[in-house]
Amino acid sequence: MDLLKKLTEVFGPSGREKNISEFIKSEVSAYADEVSTDALGNLIVRKKGTKSKIMLAAHMDEIGIVATFTDENGFIRFSAVGGLYNKDLLGRRVRFENGIVGVIGSEEDNKDRKIPKMYVDIGAKDKESAEKLVSTGDMAVFCGEFYENSDTVISKALDNRAGCYVLIEALKNVKSDNDLYFVFTSQEEVGLRGARTSAFKIAPDYALAVDVTDTGDTPEGIKMAVKSGKGAAIKVMDRSVLCDTFVRSVLVELAKKNNIDYQLEVMNDGGTDAGAISLSGSGVKTGGISIPTRYIHSPSELISKKDLNDCTDLLISFAEFDFGGNRID
């Protein structure tokens, strides 16, 4: 899990994916025929083939905050970058790209945990001192140490560095005649933006988005069929997409054929890159492989190593599948 640990530690909130893009590029270049970066910051890694054109996507960006202004006492006000659970923010530590760490505090009367009444305390004595360290527009990500035991990993940014890990491992091990595009997308957490532009550029015949999904197996938690440790989750739908039934059936049959544990996922809240890809151009036959994850959008997301391996094996099987040998176009 050393690669996954390194992926989670790289700074990369939405719109600031340069560091994580460069790290992934260093990992995959030796296995690729072409590597490029587009105007929105998507990293597009091609493994050439003569058969169907397949796009495999995982977003690089993580949630975070952006500094909006600093008050006279040196406390930094902020806005959200991606979906934050406001009630859980108080007392969390955040790290800016330059290494400065601060703690999220709140005005005393902020019973509803509203972000405009919160601030980041970096220990500055006044505005001038704070602004020497953090400027308006600087972004920060949450601190969350990587930990693993024999069965699970816990870390910040597993959403979606775990998906990036699956793509990288698949790229290193796949043997396929298909024309494969491994796309590490930008700005997913703020509106699936990178997936939309990269899919338009590639115009794939088929596509899969690899991302995390919630689980329904914690006490008094949400009600859904997905459970941690029970295998790759094959997406049926989320709020952004109704997955292509043919792509879904291929995934199910491949899982059965290759003895890969799987479960079906219906996610009632949230969306993934699959939604943007499916609507690109004149439409793309799109599906999703989801990694069951507890405590999403927290500094302590938890994933089963078995599920991670099952997702990787299923992605490789899909990339190697013969769709008939001809491009749709």
List strands and helices in order, with pairings:
Elements: H1 2-9, H2 18-28, E1 34-37, E2 43-47, E3 53-59, E4 64-70, E5 76-81, E6 93-96, E7 101-106, E8 118-121, H3 127-131, E9 139-142, E10 147-148, E11 152-155, H4 158-173, E12 179-185, H5 193-202, E13 206-213, E14 232-238, E15 241-242, H6 245-257, E16 262-266, H7 273-278, E17 285-294, E18 301-304, H8 305-320
Parallel strand pairs: 3-12, 3-13, 13-17, 14-16
Antiparallel strand pairs: 1-2, 2-12, 4-5, 4-9, 6-7, 6-9, 7-8, 10-11, 11-18, 14-15, 14-17, 17-18
Helix pairs in contact: 1-4, 4-8
Describe this structure in words.
This protein has helices spanning 2-9, 18-28, 127-131, 158-173, 193-202, 245-257, 273-278, 305-320; strands spanning 34-37, 43-47, 53-59, 64-70, 76-81, 93-96, 101-106, 118-121, 139-142, 147-148, 152-155, 179-185, 206-213, 232-238, 241-242, 262-266, 285-294, 301-304. The protein has 329 residues and is of the alpha+beta class. The chain has 2 domains: 2-62 and 156-320, Aminopeptidase (3-Layer(aba) Sandwich); 64-142, Beta Barrel (Elongation Factor Tu (Ef-tu), domain 3). Strand 17 (285-294) and strand 18 (301-304) form a beta hairpin. Helix 1 (2-9) packs across helix 4. The radius of gyration is 20 Å and the shape is globular. The model has no long low-confidence stretch (mean pLDDT 96).
